[in-house]
Amino acid sequence: MSLRDELNAVLAGFGPEIRFNIPPINDAGMSRFIVKVPAELTVLHDRQLVVDVRLAELDDAFTLSTPVAALKQTPDAGFFEALLRVPADDSAMGRVGLALYDAGDYDVIQAQMHWVLESINGEQFRALYSAFFVGLVSLIDEIADMARQTRYVTPIHPGRGD
């Protein structure tokens, strides 16, 4: 079974756990799901976390990602310097990092984790997702705080500072 097939099976099983129907990975190698997050864990826009699953072209790796800020214009160089200094979460499961994506009219800063795997099962996916989420919680707060101090940067989630 390919990693794509295994991920689709895992996502189909994970959907009921988060009470959301997760579509299978499409021809572009993507799936998106939404997780309702209790306010006690972190402050999210509409108490929801949008998570993208991206399968690598070679079907040997996948990425979990979510947007954390939008850039309407290019912020000062100091913002990018501070962004590069944000320590990535380093856990036994992986590392949450940041990437800049062109979304057309604006750029998006995304938090993401990558894994290169030959196969995956439901238990492994839950552990990887959990590592992603734990690293993301502090990152959301940090990015939101940085955005409040910088022109042209809009946090996707308010973080605990608001």
Summarize the structure in short.
32% of the residues lie in helices and 31% in strands.
Task: Please provide a written account of the structure.
The protein has 162 residues and is of the alpha+beta class. The chain has helices at 3-18, 77-85, 122-148, and strands spanning 30-36, 48-55, 61-71, 89-91, 94-102, 107-116, 153-155. 32% of the residues lie in helices and 31% in strands. Strands 1, 2, 3, 4, 5, 6 and 7 form a seven-stranded antiparallel beta sheet that branches. Strand 5 (94-102) and strand 6 (107-116) form a beta hairpin. The chain starts with a helix and ends in a 7-residue tail after the last strand. 26% of the residues are buried. The mean pLDDT is 86.
- Count the helices. How many? 3
Mean pLDDT: 86
The radius of gyration is: 16 Å
Residue fraction in strands:
25-35%
Fraction of residues in H or I helices: 25-40%
The total count of strands amounts to 7
Largest sheet: 7 strands, antiparallel
Order of helices and strands: HEEEHEEEHE
Coarse morphology: globular
Give the class from helix and strand content and strand pairing: alpha+beta
For the record, give the distance between the C-alpha atoms at the N and C termini, rounded to a whole number. Answer: 46 Å
| Uncertain regions spanning at least 5 consecutive residues | none
Keywords:
single chain, globular, alpha+beta, 162 residues
Q: In terms of topology, how is this protein built?
A:
Elements: H1 3-18, E1 30-36, E2 48-55, E3 61-71, H2 77-85, E4 89-91, E5 94-102, E6 107-116, H3 122-148, E7 153-155
Antiparallel strand pairs: 1-2, 2-3, 3-6, 3-7, 4-5, 5-6
